[in-house]
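User: Teach me something about this protein's shape.
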Amino acid sequence: MQEHPVLGQVTLGYSPVTNRERAVVATRLTVFPERPDACPDAAALLAVLDEVWPAEAAADQPLRLAPRPLDPATVAQRAGPRPQLMLNLAGEALLRAVMAAGPGPQLMIEVPAFMVGDAAHQPLLQQLHGAGSVLLIKGRPLAPLPPEMLSLFAHSIVEAGDDRRSGPAPAGVTRSITTVQAGCRTSADFDAAFQRGAVAVLGWPLDDAAPKSSGRASVPSDVNAVMALINGVERERPVGELEAVLKRDPTLAFRLMRYLNSPAFGLTVEINSFGHALMMLGYQRLKRWLALLLASSAKGANAKPVMHAAVRRGLLMEELAREQGDAEMRGEMFICGVFSLLDQLLQQPFGELLPNVPVPERVQQALRGEGGPYTPYLELVRAIEQEAVFDIRERAEVLMLGTATVNRAVLMALRAARQLDG
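Assistant: First, the predicted structure itself:
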């Protein structure tokens, strides 16, 4: 990624857009201007975003929010690139500047309801809609909007506490606009939003109660296989012994090869076996990708958005450590980020999990909530996930990380995660 001065003019946070099938279909990026009295460079901001979410890459990525199939006429009308990024611009001046700059078709733009009701903004909104931009109205308007304005918006973003619906629309009744529920923080929030008829939710189901002791003597076979591989790599066991573990689970081998051959990994040759991967990478570098494999072994209705968070935590922790120039620290922070949600993913407390998964002492300290050098980084990542601007700034200051450095790390991690998602 190129150096962009605009990264020093904003603070970034992100969260997932999750549909009814619990698949993450887009990313919501919240952009806070650093100074309320100055508007960041809108054209430069859009150029940065295009490096991470290029318009041409969206051509074969349909946005699947709608609860019912689209008719052929609608499909034809919406042919072309599909949105990948929901852009929440926390500043009226910046929002106006971005809309005037002509956002690409890969972006969905959130527009506060009070701006939609202002006649001064309506011509620009109509122009954007006519150019193919996907618009979302955020919040409830103070007065009913005319049909010609309401028709410009694909969805309405409603906070959980403001949702007045009691369920899906009755049979034979079509609501004028579908709802994306914001402010979801638990699995119960997700379930309730979809029961009320939401087509998607914004937020992470990460505030569920901590898992209790399972009392299980063993873990599922695929999880056990990944743990065996991590243990074997940690002890630098012979290649043949490690490959034998994979041969017992072909699905596991396929998932590992998919990760290793993703563009995010950056290898110039295709990896075709575990032995080949070990020869190319070495034991310690391979261990970090086995951490991703372990996180992806989760089951359950809401596991997908949690896995989505775990992958991005690992990549963001690694990017934040890049300034230190310490390869060992970067590797450990990657594992720390991925494993920070392992208890939720596998529904077992860390007290049961950590004895079975060899992780460095500094990582164990952070996962157990005992402090250590990685905890401040983990707290910064959590603030970014929650799009909490004051917490982001405070955590970054503790780590003596500049605004541009943190924002660059966020975008690099999100780009690498998109490549991993394939």
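Now, about its shape. The longest strand covers residues 10-19. Residues 303-321 form the longest helix (19 residues). If you'd like, I can walk through any region in more detail.
User: That's plenty for now, thanks!
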